[in-house]
Amino acid sequence: MTDGNRFRELLDAAPDAIIEADAAGRIVLVNEIAQRLFGYTRDEFLGLSIDSLVPAAMRGRHADHRESFGRHATTRPMGSGLELRAQRRDGTVFPVEISLSPIHSGDGFHVIATVRDVTARRAAEERFRELQNRFTGELEEKNRQLRQRNAEVERSDRLKSEFLAGMSHELRSPLHTIIGFAELLIEELEGPLNDKQKRFVSHIHRDSHHLLALINDLLDLSKIEAGRMEFHPEEFALRPALDDVVEMMRPRAEGKELTLTAAVDPRVFVDADRLHMRQVLTNLLSNAVKFTAAGGTVSVTASQRSNRIAISVADSGVGIAREDHEAIFDKFYQVGSTTKGVREGTGLGLAITKRLVEQQGGRIWVDSEPGRGSTFVFTVKAGRSSTDCIGPLVLIIEDEPRAGELLVNYLAPEKLLTLCVSGARQAAMIGQELEPEAIVVDLAGPTTEDWQIIRDLRGSPFLAAIPIIVVSAAEIDDEARSLHVAAHLTKPVGKRQLMDTFARVAGRKADS
Ligand code: ADP
Questions:
Q1: Which helix (H) or strand (E) covers residue 236, if one does?
Q2: Whose Cα sits closest to atom 11 in ligand 1?
Q3: Contact 490, 460 (CB under 8 A)
């Protein structure tokens, strides 16, 4: 094969049209693709002005462009940034990309143009733009619809709460009358009632009260949900506020022979809405009293860590199964097994309580097991005056209710704040909020099950690094040793021993 033939083959194998023109713009060489693309034969091409490949409308200016390229000739794309077009022999026009290279041949300055047909690419780009426009249009339409829906929802929320506010006022007035007259009848001031009549009237009285509570709760909830509940935070001492609620609850507790205690350091101050705090405490305490059988206990404690106060309301009542722990904070959710036959509640108390706590930046959770009582804990912002009484917090995990009482009595006078919890799950929730200095695990065993508590504590991201002191009845075994607790004390444990151990391990963030 001669060099000339090889050159021709190379040219024809190129994927783009290649056209060479001389200094006057006359075509001197074309490849196969150029012929197919433009519809000229090789013979027709040769000698043709390159300007005839430019669409008629632009042809006039093309001669100037050619000249200026001749003056600053470099290899470069033609008309960068422009959408270039070329014209076929039959006059049809199509989009192209052109790259120009100057060469010097025997008879002077030549230009080689590489022309690529970009019809397919332009069509794809066009389609893409169309889709993009359609998509943007649809998105805008969806956004508009969403904004409209939001506005409608807000409007209907507002109307709902206005309606509820109006209706509850309308309902409350006659209800007060019904309750008032029922009370007058019960007092028998207008003459004696027989037993049946008394029973009937007391049904009316009880159910009217129930209805009143329901209306009040519904109104509160709708106010909160519509963002219309007002919060007036102020700083106040927790203990007197709590004592008020406890005293209000005491007759009911005593009626059921419950032991009701509140042990809160008088220096604990909270920064919260006083009325809502009272409402939260009242709800938790009245539930505790309601769901605890005669002879049981209900106790309130509080502890502080940095700028948070955790208040816990614990009872020894019926308890709540794990699968209900979240649902009880939903509207109208009542656990059948606890409320069977009891028409006292509305099922809205905890829903309101949770919202009141959360809207003030706190959290609320429950730790409970059926038959083992319940502990509700909620957090609230600490008042500034409270900072004086911040002491290190020690979490006490007690295996049996009240087993930790002795430990609390050891630690409390030493300015250590204590919080008793019954399991690793609740400890983890508190750990997230309050950063304890150490965890004391009081075990009756220990059994393999007990050691699981330690593993669970280690597994919590908020507690993994907190030193653990185990207080147990039995000697530590190999299984326990592998858990790397900071210290292990065998009962009986004296106060000095516990305090020394605490001083040694507290603040030591990684156990080894
Ligand atoms: P209710 O008006 O029924 O008390 P709440 O919203 O206050 O409504 O409580 C929802 C449900 O949670 C109760 O019906 C009860 O089943 C359960 N519950 C709440 N507190 C306790 C508790 N201290 N012990 C056991 N169950 C409880």
A1: strand 233-237
A2: 334
A3: no
From the CA of 328, how far away is ligand 1's center (Å)?
A: 7
Q: Ligand 1 atom 16: the closest Cα is on which residue?
A: 335
Pairing type for strands 374-381 and 308-315 reads antiparallel
Closest CA to 185 of 176, 173, 197: 197
Ligand 1, pocket residues at CB < 6 Å = 283, 287-288, 291, 315, 317-318, 320, 328, 333-335, 338-339, 345-351, 374
Q: How far apart (Å, rounded) are the C-alpha atoms in residues 270 and 196? A: 50
> What are the CB-based long-range contacts (under 8 Å, 24+) for 218-223?
218/164, 218/168, 218/348, 219/164, 219/165, 219/168, 220/348, 220/352, 221/331, 221/348, 221/351, 221/352, 221/355, 222/160, 222/161, 222/164, 222/165, 223/161, 223/165
- Mean pLDDT for back-to-back runs of 10 residues, the chain (512 residues): 77 90 92 94 94 88 79 72 88 92 83 92 90 92 95 85 78 89 90 92 91 86 82 92 93 93 85 95 96 92 82 92 91 73 74 95 91 92 71 76 70 72 76 80 76 83 86 76 82 86 72 38
Distance CA 79, CA 99 (A): 9
CA distance 168 to 162: 10
